[in-house]
Amino acid sequence: MMGRWGSTAIQIWKDMFYGFGFFWLIIRESFRLNTQRGVGWKVVVMQILFTGVNALAIILLISLSLGAVIIFEGAKLFSLGQNSLLYTILITIITRELGPLLTAFIVMARSGVAIATELSNMVISQEIEAYMAVGINPISYLVVPRFIGVTISVMALTLLFSTAGLAGAWFVVQFVQPLPAGEYFTNLLTHLSLTDLTASLVKSLAFGMIIAVVSSYHGFQANQSSTEVPVLVIKAVGRGFSLLIIVNIIITLVYLL
Length: 257
Known about the structure:
Shape: elongated
Number of helices: 10
Order of helices and strands: HHHHHHHHHH
Structural class: mainly alpha
Strand content: under 5%
Number of domains: 1
Mean pLDDT: 84
Largest sheet: none
Helix content: over 70%
Distance between the termini: 40 Å
Number of strands: 0
């Protein structure tokens, strides 16, 4: 048993160091994005289209639903005259906490799976070796555009999630206690602090990078068999979700201190 635990611990440390090295390569190559004939940026645009634009419907649905649930559950606060507390709850849950995390979960489940599957299939079909044979860096050509596209998409979707969630809450509050739009959004902006916006921005940036790096890292772990693909995809999703939760807790604690 001790031997298994030791082997597992060693493997975890190896994965961590290799992962950090992989992340450093992506950051370095991001400043050298191949712009010849616009190839690199075309991939970035296509990744934004798939990750961001195609996910708009599900993001809007979940954000509106979350805002509606919070208003329904907090309806008693209106009758008790604790309107300001409800604004604080809305901002804390939608803008600073659940908004960025739920957005990241959705992107990981969609784009993370797609990236890991695509790259692992390319490794198995020896396309990566073909790129290297003609002098093309697979990190720069394949990973960096997806890294930039996913990160930008997560940040934009998080902003959209917060906006739609808060706007949806106002729509629902009309059925609980009619409230002028001007009064609602003025009070909302009054309770919205720079810390809330910064925390949401930092989380979305970190989450986007985590999704792209974890998905690409596991995609390149494939060897020669197509049966490895679903296993690697499951690992990517599991580790991606775990890292997102851990980083979310760390950033939240930093802003609470």
